[in-house]
Amino acid sequence: MNEKAYYQDKICIVTGANSGIGYALSEDLLNRGATVYMAGRNPEKIAKAAGQLASHADRVHTIVVDVTKQEQVQQAIEGTTAEAGRLDMLFNNAGIGATLPYEKATLENWKAVIDTNLWSVIYGVHAAVPIMLKQGFGHIVNTSSIAGVTPPPFQALYCLTKYGVTGLTESLRYEYAEKGLNFSTICPANIATPIFQRGSDGTVNDKVPIPDDAYPVDKAASYILDRVAERKGIIIVPEEPFTDMWRGYVLGDEQTEAALLQMAHDRRVSFETKGTYY
Fold first, then answer.
1. Which residue of 101, 152, 188, 273 has the fewest C-beta atoms within 10 A of its own C-beta?
2. Which of 158, 163, 215, 223 is catalytic?
């Protein structure tokens, strides 16, 4: 099918849309003819992001919503549906990173990561599925991570949430296949976004470098939307070498096992000597 035509005149909500993958998805969706409701917690930031896409005129809108609050998510999705007349696509994209030794993680860290990365997706799906079932159509796209299909060491908090997102989305993909609903899971690896610099407590550390090999976010968004249009389930981006890494982990490949153990060693040494993983 024509991947661009899939989005023509679609009504889409994108959470975490003021930066990173969320912003790039919003821009690409608009370029493909969709109407996009860009959702974010900070009114100034989401207004600024939408303003940068003002050339799309009446097809770009904003929603101020804290995705960790169920009532706000419910209101945002139901309100958008009422205003637009339907909801074609929901991108549950908001998330935060967490890379730290397990023994250093506080229960507050756990709560922040789970609320933002997992509960927000649950809230979004909970609100959108009844609407889409009534319509008889809809596509929910949840952002997981490469850490939602493989287990990078020192990311236990993050992996818990992202494995949860992957499992939830894949299970629903099969459950609702006969009902006209589609589900896709985005599993980004190293994408050039600020997530590397944002901690589980919401603070931003500009000293944390974005990896040199990070994939350009605009190319990631384009690849993701092409695969979503194909109704693909798990979407790993960039595809190589991370698809091979996933397969190697699942199949118990010795090289993949050795690579993960080496990563664990290197990160442990870095945390013990420098207090960081980079």
1. 273
2. 158
